[in-house]
Write a structure and sequence with these properties.
alpha+beta; Nitrilase/N-carbamoyl-D-aminoacid amidohydrolase; 23% helix
Length: 299
């Protein structure tokens, strides 16, 4: 990848229950990003709909699309028109009864450069993703584009240092995390602050440990959950772009739909790794325990 700066953009938005409204808002923001000079544009997790995984409901499988399908085809035409690379998350219908939480990377000519299927699938109150998504089977493999090798990971993946490391070892030049995460409205302000700080800190840690720039694109706004009698999720926005030493280059507000832009220089990775030679000093001969669920003995 060139050492010259690359202007990247991410689109943080609040979602409605209308797919076409959400997609139109995203396309308008993509046009604005391209007009502002962005060549790489990242969309948030499951951006075409509200976050349906708050409940388990069979009707939501109707939201899934094939790849290519209507959303990818529309964004592919836009990418070709604007000569930009777009990272677009999709609820993928792979086959009858088989679904994935997937990110598709669209090249500047509108072709599909590759896709990543979410590997870590949560099953927590308000995040019932195991009901909908089969764990990914494509591994932690960067996607080659005209702008460089993109290490795509999705939401829950962002808490696992192993995922970021494997992407880096496979040659990723940018780490990218489309996300849908927020607070339970019942959380105290202090707990909300701790969660948000932890979310940002661990991702900045991935950037630092691997000397890679990082793009994290979250959704914003409150989405209720009438189907499971929960109060809903207040998505905390706060999307950000940081450099290879974890330095914040741009930060979105918590509660506003935002087009966030920043210049990143993936070519700086080599210089940073010369200064902080974490990869040189890894003790791969002593890491065999990482493949185990638990090493310590507990009563």
């Amino acid at each position: 990848m060139s050492a010259s700066p690359l202007k990247a953009g991410l689109i943080q938005q609040a979602c409605t229950t209308n797919r076409d409204t959400n997609l139109d808002a995203t396309c308008s923001a993509i046009l604005q990003a391209a007009a502002s000079g962005a060549r790489l544009i990242v969309l948030q997790e499951l951006f075409t709909n509200r976050y349906f995984c708050q409940s388990t409901c069979q009707k939501h499988f109707q939201l899934a699309e094939a790849i290519p399908g209507p959303t990818v085809e529309k964004l592919a035409a836009l990418a070709a028109q604007l000569k930009v690379v777009i990272v677009t998350p999709i609820f993928e219908r792979r086959a009858a009864g088989l679904y994935h939480n997937t990110a598709v990377v669209i090249e500047t000519d509108g072709s599909i450069a590759g896709k990543y299927r979410k590997m870590h699938i949560p099953d927590d109150p308000g995040y019932h993703e195991k009901y909908y998504f089969t764990p990914g089977d494509l591994g932690f493999t960067p996607i080659d584009t005209s702008l460089g090798r993109l290490g795509i990971l999705i939401c829950w993946d962002q808490w696992f240092p192993e995922a970021a490391r494997l992407m880096a070892l496979a040659g990723a030049e940018i780490l990218i995390y489309p996300t849908a995460i927020g607070w339970d409205p019942g959380d105290t302000p202090a707990e909300q602050a701790r969660q948000l700080d932890a979310w940002q800190t661990i991702q900045r840690g991935h950037a630092i440990a691997n000397a890679l720039p990082l793009i994290s694109c979250n959704r914003t706004g409150f989405e209720d959950a009438p189907e499971n009698n929960r109060s809903g999720i207040n998505f905390w926005g706060s999307s950000f772009i940081c450099g290879p030493q974890g330095e914040i280059l741009a930060q979105a507000p918590a509660n506003e739909s935002t087009l966030l832009l920043a210049e990143i220089t993936p070519g700086n990775t080599e210089l940073v790794r010369q200064t902080w030679p974490f990869l040189r000093d890894r003790r791969t001969d002593a890491y065999t325990g990482l493949a185990q669920i638990l090493m310590a003995k507990h009563p």
